[in-house]
Design a protein that fits this description.
Blueprint (H helix, E strand, L loop, with lengths): L3 E2 L6 H5 L2 E5 L3 H12 L3 E5 L7 H6 L4 E2 L1 H7 L2 E4 L3 H12 L8 E4 L3 H4 L10 E7 L3 H9 L6 E7 L5 H11 L2 H4 L1 E3 L2 H16 L1 H16 L4 H10 L1 H19 L2 H14 L2 H15 L2 H11 L3 H11 L2 H10 L19
Helix pairs in contact: 2-7, 10-11, 10-15, 11-12, 12-18
Bound molecules: NADPH dihydro-nicotinamide-adenine-dinucleotide phosphate and magnesium ion (2 copies).
Length: about 350
C-alpha cells in the first residue's frame, strides 16, 4: 500500500520561512495562493502582462508580479499555468530568472516526466497535486478540512526537498486529509490513463453510444438522455461513497442482475486490450507528442474534435432537459453553457 503522511508528519515552519511565487491564478493557482497565505506563508502571484487574472488576485489582496519578477523574488516557484503553456513559459520567463537553491513545484507531472521542461540540477523539483478541482481545494480549506494530495520529489538538490513538500502539502490543507507518496512517472501516466480510458474518454463514448442506440431504436431523446446520462451521477455518487458494491446494493435486484449479465457483453475483453494500447501510447510519449505538436500548431485537431463533440445530438437534448432543473444555475457560476464550443 502507498505511504501516507498526515498533519504530524509535516512542519509548517519550513514553508513559512520561504517566499512562494504561484504562477497562474486559475483553478489550482487561486486555491494554492489563498490557502498558503491563510497558513502564514509569504505569497506573490506571477501573471503575464494584461492577464485577466490580475484583477482577481489583487481583489483577494495578493501581490501580483510578472512571471519573471515573481520567479526572481521567490524561493519556491509553483507552476500552475495550463500544462500546454508551461514549457514555453518555463524557457522564456522562469528558467532565466530562477535562483540556484530554489524549488520548482508542480501539481501535475506532464512537462517534467515527458521532458518538455528540463530544470538545471541545482534546484529541487517536487510535486504537490491535490486530488480535486481547485475550487474544492479552497472550499474545503476554508471549512477547516482538506483535499488529499499526491506528493513526490523528482530532484532533491538541496537534500531537504521532502521537508519542503510535506510542509507545502500541510499549508494547502492536504495533510488534513492525507498525502500519498508517488512519483512523477506514476502520477503522470495514471492520471492520463484514467482520464482517457475511463473518466473522460471512456465514459463520454459510453454515454454517446447508449444515447445513439436508444434514439436510433425510436425512443424519445429526452428519455434516452435521462436513462444513459442524467442518472449517471446518482450511480457515480454511490460508487464514490461505498464502491461498486454499494451501488449494486442500492440498486434494484433487476438492475444488479442486468449489470452482471450485460455489463461484460458491452465492455468486452477486447476493450481491455484497447486500454492497454492507450496505456502504451501514454508510457512511450506518443500521446504527449501528439497533444503538444497539435497545441504548438494552434490546436487544429483539438478544435476540430471539440466542435464535433459539441455537435453530437445528445448535447442539444441535454441543454433542453437541464433547463428543466431550477437548481442548475447555482452549480457553477464560472461555466457558461456552450462556451467551450
Ligand atoms: P487553469 O487553466 O485554471 O490556469 C489558468 C491560469 O493560468 C490563469 O490565471 C491564466 O491567466 C494563467 N495562464 C494561462 N496562460 C498563461 C501563460 N501563457 N502565462 C502565464 N499565465 C498563464 O489551470 P489549472 O489550475 O486547471 O491547472 C494548473 C495545473 O494544475 C496544471 O498542471 C494541471 O494539470 C494541474 N491540476 C489541475 C487541477 C484542476 O483542478 N484544474 C487538478 C489537479 C492538478 P490568464 O488570465 O493570463 O490566461
Ligand atoms: Mg489530468
Ligand atoms: Mg432507470
Amino acid at each position: 500500500a502507498a505511504e501516507k503522511f498526515y498533519e504530524d508528519d509535516a512542519d509548517l515552519s519550513v514553508i513559512q520561512s520561504k517566499k512562494v511565487a504561484v504562477i497562474g491564478y486559475g483553478s489550482q493557482g487561486h486555491a494554492h495562493a489563498l490557502n498558503l497565505r491563510d497558513s502564514g506563508v509569504e505569497v506573490a502571484v506571477g501573471l503575464r502582462e494584461g492577464s485577466s487574472s490580475v484583477a482577481k488576485a489583487q481583489e483577494a489582496g495578493l501581490p501580483v508580479k510578472t512571471v519573471a519578477e515573481a520567479t526572481a523574488w521567490a524561493d519556491v516557484v509553483v507552476v500552475l499555468a495550463p500544462d500546454q503553456v508551461q514549457a514555453t513559459l518555463y524557457s522564456t520567463e522562469i528558467e532565466p530568472h530562477i535562483r540556484p537553491g530554489s524549488a520548482l513545484l508542480f501539481s501535475h507531472g506532464f512537462n517534467i516526466h515527458f521532458g518538455y521542461i528540463k530544470p538545471s540540477d541545482d534546484i529541487d523539483v517536487v510535486m504537490v497535486a491535490p486530488k480535486g478541482p481547485g475550487h474544492t481545494v479552497r472550499r474545503e480549506f476554508e471549512a477547516g478540512r482538506g483535499v488529499p494530495v499526491l506528493v513526490c520529489v523528482e530532484q532533491d538538490s538541496s537534500g531537504s526537498a521532502w521537508d519542503l513538500v510535506l510542509s507545502y502539502a500541510k499549508a494547502v490543507g492536504g495533510t488534513r486529509a492525507g498525502a500519498i507518496r508517488t512519483t512523477f512517472r506514476e502520477e503522470t501516466e495514471t492520471d492520463l490513463f484514467g482520464e482517457q480510458a475511463v473518466l473522460c474518454g471512456g465514459v463520454s463514448q459510453l454515454i454517446q453510444y447508449g444515447f445513439e442506440t436508444l434514439t436510433e431504436a425510436g425512443y424519445q431523446p429526452e428519455m434516452a438522455y435521462f436513462e444513459v446520462c442524467h442518472e449517471l451521477k446518482l450511480i457515480v455518487d454511490l460508487i464514490v461513497e461505498g464502491g461498486i458494491s454499494k451501488q449494486r446494493w442500492s440498486c434494484s435486484d433487476t438492475a444488479e442482475y442486468g449489470d452482471y449479465i450485460s455489463g461484460p457483453r458491452v465492455i468486452t475483453p477486447d476493450v481491455k486490450e484497447h486500454m492497454k494500447e492507450v496505456l502504451s501510447d501514454i508510457q512511450d510519449g506518443t500521446f504527449a507528442k501528439r497533444f503538444m505538436d497539435d497545441q504548438a500548431a494552434g490546436a487544429p485537431e483539438f478544435k476540430k474534435l471539440r466542435a464535433a463533440g459539441e455537435s453530437h445530438p445528445i448535447e442539444a437534448t441535454g441543454r433542453e432537459v437541464r433547463s428543466m432543473f431550477a437548481w442548475r444555475a447555482d452549480v457553477d457560476k464560472d461555466y457558461t453553457e456552450g462556451s467551450v464550443a
